[in-house]
Amino acid sequence: MYLAKIKPNIFATEGVIEALCSLLRRDASINFKAKGNSLVSVLACNLLMAAYEEDENWPEIFVKVYIEDSLGERIWVDSPHCKTFVDNIQTAFNTKMPPKSMLLQGEVARSGGDLSAGSSPHPSLTEEEDSQTELLIAEEKLSPEQEGQLMPRPRYDDLAESVEEYVLDMLRDQLNRRQPIDNVSRNLLRLLTSTCGYKEVRLMAVQRLEMWLQNPKLTRPAQDLLMSVCMNCNTHGVEDMDVISHLIKIRLKPKVLLNHYMLCVRELLSAHKDNLGTTIKFVVFNELSNARNPNNMQILYTVLQHSSELAPKFLAMVFQDLLTNKDDYLRASRALLREIIKQTKHEVNFQAFCLGLMQERKEPQYLDMEFKERFVVHVTDVLAVAMMLGITAQVKEAGTAWDKGEKKNLEVLRSFQNQIAAIQRDAVWWLHTVVPSISKLAPKDYVHCLHKVLFTEQPETYYKWDNWPPESDRNFFLRLCSEVPILEDTLMRILVIGLSRELPLGPADAMELADHLVKRAAAVQADDVEVLKVERIQLIDAVLNLCTYHHPENIQLPPGYQPPNLAISTLYWKAWPLLLVVAAFNPENIGLAAWEEYPTLKMLMEMVMTNNYSYPPCTLTDEETRTEMINRELQTSQREKQEILAFEGHLAAASTKQTITESSSLLLSQLTSLDPQGPPRRPPPHILDQVKGLNQSLRLGHLLCRSRSPDFLLNIIQRQASSQSMPWLADLVQSSEGSLDVLPVQCLCEFLLHDAADDATSGEEEEEGESREQKAKKRQRQQKQRQLLGRLQDLLLGPKADEQTTCEVLDYFLRRLGSSQVASRVLAMKGLSLVLSEGSVRDGEEKEPPMEDDPGDPEALRGYQWLLRDLPRLPLFDSVRPTTALALQQAIHMETDPQTISAYLVYLSQHTPVEEQGQHSDLALDVARLVVERSTIMSHLFSKRSCSAESDAVLVALLSIFSRYVRRMRKSKEGEEVYSWSESQDQVFLRWTSGETATMHILVVHAMVILLTLGPPRGAAHVGSPVP
What pLDDT is recorded for position 541? Predict the structure, then answer.
């Protein structure tokens, strides 16, 4: 061994090789009876390996001795000590050997040899001999790096053909011998296993495999051979397709064998990318043949598990092949598909399968197909069956539970619904782009196919072929498949198909179908599923384009005449409700575009939000605007009528030569002006009824009101402001199922006011005759009011109070304090009182003592604690001070109640921000106007001064405001221009005896003079130092 390592060339001579190979051959004439017989082979192998390690081209004799030993006693072929040499010889066969973990053949004796094979057993080695073997090849123990160099390398590239010829001849000779089946050597099977790199060997082996697998003596090596055949089936040539064809015909019953067979099928699929399609095709065709293999379904199950994405596609291609047949295979295909789904436990990617069915095929058999129309109709039918087959037992159970109002297994149901929606999207794509290139279908067939995939066709078309689904499940299955979301692409394509002149679906049918699908999807709405998600604003134009009226092309209109844009009335008034539903489900894009650019659609949105279907809409509160809208509609209608008559006149002149009048016009009743971005049109009464019905069933108003970005509800509330009560808001809050967080604070404030008004009108006394239902409703409303009040107080006083919400809540009420309607002012005060006072009690009793700067808190002003005590205690009072002061400065000019004005003045004297001179001047002027111009209020306040603490408090407040103002104005710098001088001068220049000067509005001076005539208040100390 040492010599062979250092001088390999000595051993690489022909004589030495012959000699060593003769040792490996175990020539029968030489009888090794001496002890240690296998050591000779081990030594010879290792000497030859050492001699030829660096050589690329090995002699053919090595293969011959390898085959002889493989078929014989396998003394050195299986010996672990000769593994490197054997592995290098095996490179001649290009066989991918199964890893040891996959080989079932038991561990062969370490010395090699299989006792049951060959002519005579050889004795096992004793311990002594084994140790000698270890010593003999001690040189072989190498470092990992050197081991890497000993990896087998191709040794027979130059002799590949002759080696292959020799091996095939040997194997044919062995296999063709006349011998009983039982007599086949296990070693032959092992040799076949290691030579499966040759396609001829695979084909020879596979034809006999079933027989060998069923032979108990050969089962294990036969299983290894099966694995080797599958792993090496990697050319996808004619021979390998033949091999696959034989493989799938192998019938096995024992479970152990069957499990191993399925493992081998997995290896077969991994061996070459095209094996998958071929296997599926052969299995399906075998299933439909007279000699069907009982294991077919299990093979398909394995295939579908192995390639869950690709296998359904290939399965679909086989179904396409079946449907191209001259004979009608539809019934057989339906039955086969049902069987496959049932046996594979529904573990099929239905969407991938359906998409596969819809792929365009370019093979000759498809291009020259005889029954193209039948093919399309049948594929449509298989698609419908596949969608219904997606209903597993779990989906069925979840659907039944949902019908009963139970939320059980919802993920399963939602997953199924989304699967159907995706398949329908693909099917509409197929009908739009692929089908027209296959065949020009008759319009009736095309429309039938479109309706069928969308489950809008007559029920019997789904089960007429084979009565599946069974009668008990029929309606339920069809409903489950139809009550699904609609994807944007599906909807857009239906509209595009309707607009296309080449496709047989007309605009009216497309509109009808789109309308049906949108409403059907909207009815499935739930919080955990998006049923009608649309991103593209172009949808609005696509829908409106379907309504357009096109005059006959063969008619010549007068030169220079521009026909008006007209729409077919029935389609036009079908389009708006359809878009209303889409807008309600997509407020952030479609809804926003509708609100800003399409006035008619905006009007319908407002109608469903306010639940008021009158025209003009109730959101227009100003009588003048309402009249203007009605007049504009009349003008538009008149102009529309004239345009249509003129247009029809031109059409008639070019064809029938008939004179068109209003009574003889055919188009007048059928057409409408198409100006979607123009003024809102009056909807026909039946459309308003339809919109009302849609709102009740789909809760469109609720969906639109719930949108905070954009905030349609807030927009309406702010437009209406304090001009009118909004009873519809109360219904909205009432129906908002505890979700007060989603409503804007303005909405909650309005509801509080509405409730306060209701309480005021109903009076305190309980109606004796109230029914139990009315009492329950009242209790429910009171509970809602408490809940709502709690929410508003939390926004103002809670830990999460922020500047924006505090301003929004108070702004809403404060704006109404200056309303011209008494009721509105009273309600606003009541609302503020509720929101602020309740909060102070809730925050703790320690806040009860009067504020330090409270001017004696006269009895009469006790009812205004919300303003004088609670409002300044708000955590974020500073952020609302300026707006509060401004609102009260305006309110003192509108308010008619002296007590209320008193409270406002006391507040203004204490809390108006007067840091800037402009603010201070505004305050002084507003109060002066009250004093000078509202003499009735003033006389009422101060006529009974002698006995009124309230009057004193007001006088103190007024004097405080003016005295601070005078002091400030006197301090202003000489050169500072406080007022800009103008022609109509209402400013006066004052000079005091002390030489100080000030410039003030004449009303302010007038007011101060009036106040000075009233004499000093009894609590003069409050005013501060008197003005000199």
Answer: 94
Whole-number Cα distances in Å, 982 to 66, 927, 976, 979, 988: 123, 23, 16, 9, 12
Instruction: Determine the Cα–Cα distance for residues 200 and 188; give it in Å rounded to an integer.
Output: 15
Instruction: Report the 10 Å Cβ neighbour count for 114.
Output: 19
Q: Are 381 and 340 in contact (CB under 8 A)?
A: no
Task: For the chain, give the percent of residues with pLDDT over 90.
Answer: 43
Asked whether the beta carbons of 549 and 671 are under 8 A apart, the reply is yes
Sign of CA dihedral 185, 188, 190, 192: negative
Whether residue 245 contacts residue 285, with contact meaning beta carbons closer than 8 Å, is answered with: no
- Helix residue ranges per DSSP H, 818-858: 822-842
User: 3-state DSSP call for residue 199?
Assistant: helix
Distances (CA, A) of 410 to 396, 402, 958: 11, 8, 69
What are the structure tokens assigned to 413, written together? 């149901």
Could you tell me whether strands 566-568 and 671-673 are parallel, antiparallel, or unpaired per DSSP bridges?
antiparallel
Q: How much is the pLDDT for 142?
A: 43
User: Letter for the amino acid at 581?
Assistant: V
pLDDT at position 841 over 50: no
Cβ–Cβ < 8 Å for 92, 63: yes
Sorted by sequence, the CB contacts under 8 Å of residue 729 that are 6+ apart come out as 717, 747, 750, 751, 754
Q: pLDDT at residue 588 above 90?
A: yes
CA distances from residue 75 to 66, 93, 112 in whole angstroms, order as listed: 10, 20, 5
Per-residue tokens: 398: 């979840």
Sign for the pseudo-dihedral over CA of 926, 932, 933, 935: positive
Kindly report the CA angle at 839 between 836 and 842, in degrees rounded to 5?
A: 160
Answer whether 56's CB lies under 8 Å from 157's CB. yes
d(CA 440, CA 504): 10
Angle at 513 between CA 508 and CA 514, to 5 degrees: 100
Structure tokens at 244: 């696959």
Q: Which residues pair with 997 in a beta bridge?
A: 991
CA distance 503 to 587: 32
Question: CA-to-CA distance for 71 and 211, rounded, in angstroms?
Answer: 20
Would you call 414 exposed, middle or buried from its count of C-beta atoms within 10 A (0-12, 13-18, 19+)?
A: middle
Residue 8: alpha-carbon gap to chain centroid: 71
In sequence order, what DSSP letters do the residues of 568-587 get, joined into one string?
Answer: EHHHHHHHHHHHHHHHHH-I
| Contact between residue 55 and residue 12 where contact means Cβ atoms under 8 Å apart | yes
Q: What stretch of H or E contains 997?
A: strand 997-1001
pLDDT in tens, 480-491: 999 999 999 999
Residue with more model confidence, 523 or 663? 523
Token pair 């389009």 in the structure block, residue: 575
Residue in 903, 921, 914 with CA at minimum distance from that of residue 1003: 921
487, amino acid identity: L
Up-side HSE of residue 72: CA atoms within 13 Å toward CB?
17
Contacts 24+ apart (CB under 8 A), 6-9: 8/50, 8/51, 8/52, 8/53, 8/54, 9/51
* Confidence at residue 990, expressed as pLDDT on a 0 to 100 scale: 85
What is the average pLDDT score of the chain? Answer: 83
The least confident of 67-71, 161-165, 195-199, 733-737 is 733-737
Three-state DSSP state, 755: helix
Smallest Cα–Cα separation from 513: which of 568, 447, 582?
A: 447
**3-class secondary structure, 526:** strand
**Nearest-angstrom CA–CA distance, 79 and 861:** 112
Which residue is it, tokens 């020879």?
204
Q: Would you state the structure tokens that stand for residue 61, as one six-digit string? A: 């004799």
Q: What pTM, to 2 d.p., does this model score? A: 0.78
Give the whole-angstrom CA distance, residue 864 versus residue 872: 12
Range 877-880 contact pairs with CB under 8 angstroms and sequence separation of 24 or more: 879/803, 879/806, 879/807, 880/806, 880/807, 880/810
Residue (of 418, 399, 423) closest to 410 by Cα position:
399
Are the C-beta atoms of 967 and 1025 separated by less than 8 Å? no
